[in-house]
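Class, study these two lines:
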Amino acid sequence: MKGTAVRRMGAALKRRMCWRNLAVAIWVVGFFSALILAWPMDTKSYLRNLSSGVLADREGRILYPCLNKQEQWCFPVDLDRVSPWLIKATIAAEDRRFRLHPGVDPVAVIRAVKQNLVHGRVVSGASTLTMQLVKRTEGAADSLAGKALQALQAVRLELRTSKNEILEAYLNGAPYGLNLVGCQSASYRFFGKPASELTLAEAALLAGLPKSPRAMMPLKNSDRALERRAYVLKRMLEEGTITREQAEAALKEPLGTRWHALPKLAPHLARASASRMDREGRVMTTLDARIQEKAERWVRHHLSPFDGEIENAAVMVVDVESAEVLARVGSADFFGTVPGGQVDGCRAPRSPGSALKPFVYAMAMEEQRLYADEILADGPVDYGLYRPDNFDRGFRGLVSASWALKHSRNVPALLVQERVGVETAWKKFRDLGLTTLTRTPDHYGLGLALGGAEVRLEELTGLYRTIAALGDFRKLKYFMKDTEYLWNSTDTRMFSRGVCLKLYEMLEGSLPLAVDGLSRSTGGASPRVCWKTGTSAGHTDAWAFVFNRHYVVGVWVGNNDGRPSRRLVGAEAALPLAARIFRSLTPKNEPAWPEAGDDLREVTLCSSSGLPASPWCMRTRTAMLPRSQYLHRICDVHHPAPADSGDARAAEVMERWPGRTQGWDLAGVQVPVTPDRGRDGGPARIHALRILVPVNQGVYVLTGEPEGDRLVLSASAPRETPLHWYLNDRYLGSSRGDSLLQLRLEEGNHRLTCMNAKGVRDTVAFQVTVPPPNPWQGGSGIRVTSFR
């Protein structure tokens, strides 16, 4: 009995020790597990994938990819850009309780242990998607302890990240065969489309590949791939994520896989962005892949009828409101154009022909030297060694400025360029972003208006975008996140809205009719558009620009080596392509044509000269002119006739026209008075505007004042009348009432003009000199030494 009691006590003690050891073991395991779980963890290493360099469009679609450092195609995408079918199929095939477990699935573990014990070997695993993600980062575990550590890491990862983040990382890093990593690369390679567009059958096929990518490669082992797809569809049906009808329909679909070339859109921009892609991985551009693809395809289609006589073209498509580039085609074929398809036609300097004319006209209107309706002469001119003519070798006589621009007449454009001045135009073009004008203004001369300087397509498209945006200049934007662009994203006013509205009127025209199905409109009435073409001297370059308030399309057509062709005419070689691309663009909800608002005003013009009518113009009409334009250039064609004239009508008014084209200007040099009938119907009274200070023909001597010598400008006008002042044709500012304007004097001969709102003006000439060797000493201040 005593021995039995001792044995019982020994057994009880052993049981207590066993439970105590078990409790200690559990406590130790729990303590270290809690410690490990709470220990900081770098989740980025598990969620990040070694991305291939990708140039993407504005919506994330691949434009141009590059292999990553491991020579793999890997294009990570956000989960919301993955087909819901692929998400459901992946969970059904790999981890049916993914949304429920904490990183380790106890049910799957128990099932795997039982199956493996029954078969005496490993026939089933219990890896969750989270555990596979950990395994992919840390490598496979060879021991049971290693597998336990991976399971613990999976739990830690689940505690610190969301289910969607884990699922996104898995789909972006899963192996799909060949050198394809991630669902996006596999979708593009096997189906030729992004993962967001996968059908149920396609998604089921991809979801089954990571299990054994080589054995189930659909391009080689189609039977195994079909079996795996059927298994995934069965699992989805069992999970209730698809209906039986959907499963049966997907099973009947053919495999549908073939080798698809990865996208190679916008190669010139991709090459220019190579370093940025290496640095950032995916670079989001402002381009639209659908517009880019159509533009590249249509460029090749457009050139085919030229039978090699014209081999290349470039295209720019720009959104007017945002200045974002929607498409950019640098050549007809990056790899095949002969010679030099890799030459970027959007940046190559080429002769623009008449494509610069609208901006010369805009400058003249801004400088108060041209009205859109005034009459210009289209006739022979002689500048010594330079005797320009028109494209058709003929002259049309008297034409309006609007007509001359719309029909791209050369001689009227030169007359307008003369008024603006070559140096003024050169500086303005540089301010508008033409970086190729690197020589002095004298080098280009008057020929600047006719294409006597090389420009780049992308920069010239930016100029047309400025007109389309009603005068607001902004640097074109290529990238969605562009630090450099953020510093240049504000608008700079280059032209007034009124001047741009007149250019809209002057350049409006119907686009060429479609010659085939590719250039059909998107439906409804054709939108109102403006267009301008250009043909370089010698027929080496053809240009066309089409725009309205929505878009600008710019096209260059030619040969990289400058080989000429008589078929290189803007209206024939470039405009049809620009029209086709413009018609394909989706109209916006906003009006495509600008509203005039208060930027234009009605003005009475002389019917003969197109200038603001003088009191002696017998026939007049009304037109809308920019409100920013002064009416100081009044018709100088009609004058009071001499009293002794024999003709009764001529006794009232006579006409006087210039005798030659060169220097043509029908406006009076000065219009200092405006006749006005008295209230009693009596004789006309003359209201004159006269400059009082400075005096006409005065000579002023500088006295060396510390702040500079100044004059307070004064004229004979009522105090409430606003006056505008110009010094040597440069606008100084305005004065009115007590708001006086001061002029700081500088040495030299000067011409000062004062003008009121009705266009009445007066001009004086004066001279400013330095003190003579023995200056008169008698106080400080400016001295008028003489009157001429």
